[in-house]
Amino acid sequence: MQVLSVAAILMFLTGSFGATDLSQEQINTILQAHNNYRKAVNPTAANMEYMEWDDSLATIAQGWADRCDFAHNPNPAANYAGSSVGENIYAGTGSYTAGKETENWNNEVSDYTYSSNSCRSGAVCGHYTQVVWATSNKLGCGWKLCGTLATVNWNNANLVVCNYAAAGNFIGQKPYVSGTPCTQCANGNDNCSDNLCGNPPGGATSAPNGNGAGGGASNTTDTPNEGGDNGATATRHWSMLPLGGVIVTLLILNMP
User: Residues 125, 110: contact at Cβ < 8 Å?
Assistant: First the structure.
């Protein structure tokens, strides 16, 4: 299976309410996968915020996914007031399992070094840092089964777009502050639970029915970078997805 990762620049722009084609169970799985990875970062995070679902972001993401084009939304926050918006994009052939996109993004942790805030040479890790960006506490995703996925010209591909507010991946900044969990929460440590600021006591951060989408488990391994153009990188991954196929991920990087 093949994975491509491309970096783009965030547009700082200015939600409207709407829907996503994801089922409620799929929404729960994707959201809980994010929170599972966020609570389990190493080193531990002093200011990691609990992530919540945002219908406005989901509407934006679904609208972009419906275009069936493997390209970034150049204006992801056009209808989202008061915050910058980040974006991760995933596409794969074969059957789609919710949470697989988040696992794929999180797998980049193996290429990221927190102390130096850097990726392994030739690797991409911006999808991972967006997933665990401490102040990105809103998430909305859309999904589309595309007969033809433009730009890469794949047939019968699942396209998943996830938008984040506030955006992460500011160049020169680490994704979170390391330290004892919940000791540097933005609004104090009230409602801190399971290493996440703002997580209501007893708040669920595991996948439905106890099936952990998080925990850092991975069935994907990285092999050397295969190059790219215009600053993009292409990295090959091999995975055990049902029916085989191709996986693609996109990310956004932010300028300060």
Answer: no
Cα–Cα dist 243/256, whole Å:
42
What pTM does this model have?
0.76
Residue 227 to residue 243: CA distance in whole angstroms: 27
Sign of the alpha-carbon dihedral angle for 100, 236, 67, 9: positive
Q: What is the pLDDT of residues 141-194, one digit of tens each?
A: 999 999 999 999 999 999 999 999 999 999 999 999 999 999 999 887 778 999
CA nearest 46: which of 181, 243, 150? 181
Token pair for residue 82?
Answer: 């008061």
- Cβ-Cβ contacts under 8 Å for 1 (sequence gap 6 or more): 92, 237, 238, 239, 241, 244, 245, 246, 247
Residue type, 52: E
